[in-house]
Write a structure and sequence with these properties.
Shape: globular
Distance between the termini: 59 Å
Strand content: 15-25%
Helix content: 25-40%
Length: 433
């Protein structure tokens, strides 16, 4: 008999830890190779951890809701035969993660933990542990401008904050901290008490809904949201799709929806207006080299996730359709990987799927814009011809553009959505796909 250490696998370049949400196997149960042993969750997606060997689960080292770092042993599996070792990988980050874990563990034992429960912002356990180790107060932690998704403070953000804080003159630090405390400690709006009677049902939010709730509130508090709306005539697109969709599916093995056509137009407009393909970090603007389009997708349980089409401007329509369908299908099946939701530079959401004519979407931090696609409707419209104007039936939709007025003014925000509309209205009905 030999013992095999089941470790938390590497899940993506930006993922250093995960939370255990459910053990699928109990101690004493037999496990087959590649069979799922437990379920884990990052701040983006949920996934399963399979066993690399066959054997019997003899020891569980972490419980549900425990946070585990990449590379840590989470269970022991007893196998037949000689000694079994986990496959070695060329993961250059493993020593770094292990060192951080060791440092954090020592800090937890030696430092009285700070209480972060009073903060309305979401901080990962790793960030909290580093804050405790370095003596960062709640007020200081809340003042850090996060570079992660939705403005989340990452490990790099807090380490940079600590480094800069220690390099400042000692006479400045107390003043900065005091000002931060004064600003943050202002009384917040008190929640209105809710009356509950015997017929009401109380349901706790699931983990993902709590995260989404935190992200949405943080985004509204961070960005000055403004909206621009424009109506678009997409009659040519509707005619073209109706004409080619069957042949497209037969040749490419993919369904052709309106979404990839819209995404193609957005990617072109972002190349024309790179000022929309940016993010904000404190007083700095970061111009993004790549155009990575987030695609908001509704999950079967009603929650929302935003997988990302990387380098969307480099895809033709066939490639865009394949990317949209792949991410959409894997989102519905819960098969997205952490990297599938990372690196977005601009987001598109299709509110028309649910019949909405237009909407006012909330910006996906740290991006500065998000476009909502309204429902396509047949409407009477004035058609201009050399012989005069007449009324005809056209296929139209609204584009709703929310953008961050801190860095995007009305001229840029309006020009961008107008360019998207221009590309859609100029769609060639005789186009070859």
């Amino acid at each position: 008999m030999a013992k095999f250490e089941l470790k938390l696998p590497k899940m993506g370049e930006s993922v250093a830890e995960a939370t255990i949400t459910n053990w699928l196997k109990n101690v004493g149960e037999t496990i087959a190779a590649d069979e799922a042993v437990l379920e884990i969750a990052t701040d983006k997606v949920d996934s399963e951890v399979p066993s690399e060997v066959s054997g019997t689960l003899t020891e569980i080292l972490f419980q549900v809701n425990d946070v585990v770092k990449v590379g840590q042993t989470i269970a022991i599996i007893e196998t037949e035969g000689g000694s079994v070792e986990a496959p070695k990988t060329a993961d250059a980050t493993a020593p770094i993660v292990a060192e951080v874990a060791k440092t954090v563990d020592v800090a937890i034992e030696s430092v009285t933990p700070a209480d972060f429960s009073g903060s309305d912002k979401f901080f990962s356990p790793l960030v909290k542990n580093i804050a405790k180790e370095e003596g960062v107060s709640v007020a200081e932690l809340e003042s850090i401008s996060g570079s992660g998704k939705d403005g989340r403070v990452t490990k790099e953000d807090i380490l940079s904050f600590v480094k800069n804080r220690t390099s400042l003159p000692q006479t400045v630090t107390p003043i900065a901290v005091e000002v931060s405390k004064t600003v943050i400690s202002q009384p917040s709006t008190q929640a209105v008490p809710i009356s509950v009677n015997g017929g009401d049902e109380i349901i706790e939010m699931d983990r993902m809904r709590k995260l989404i709730s935190g992200y949405m509130v943080a985004s509204v508090q961070t960005s000055a949201h403004v909206q621009s709306f424009i109506e678009v005539d997409v009659t040519n697109i509707v005619k073209w799709r109706t004409k080619v969709k069957d042949a497209f599916e037969k040749r490419e093995g993919e369904k052709l929806t309106f979404t990839p056509i819209m995404m193609e137009a957005v990617a072109k407009a972002l190349k024309d207006f790179p000022g929309m393909n940016i993010s904000v970090d404190g007083d700095y603007i970061i111009k993004k080299k790549n155009i990575n389009l987030g695609m908001a997708a509704a999950l079967p349980n009603g929650n929302l996730i935003v997988p990302v089409i990387k380098n969307a401007d480099q895809l033709n329509l066939v490639g865009m359709a394949k990317a949209v369908n792949d991410l959409g299908n894997r989102a519905k099946a819960g098969k997205l990987k952490p990297d599938d939701t990372q690196g977005g530079t601009y987001t598109v959401t299709n509110v028309g799927t649910f019949g909405s004519v237009f909407g006012t979407p909330i910006i996906n931090q740290p991006q500065v814009g998000i476009l909502a696609l309204g429902a396509i409707r047949k409407v009477p419209a004035v058609i201009e011809t050399p012989e005069g104007d007449f009324i005809g039936i056209r296929q139209k939709m609204f584009l709703s553009h929310s953008y961050d007025h801190r860095v995007v003014d009305g001229a840029l925000g309006g020009s961008f959505v107008k360019r998207v509309a221009d590309y859609l209205e100029a769609f060639d009905v005789n186009r070859e796909y």
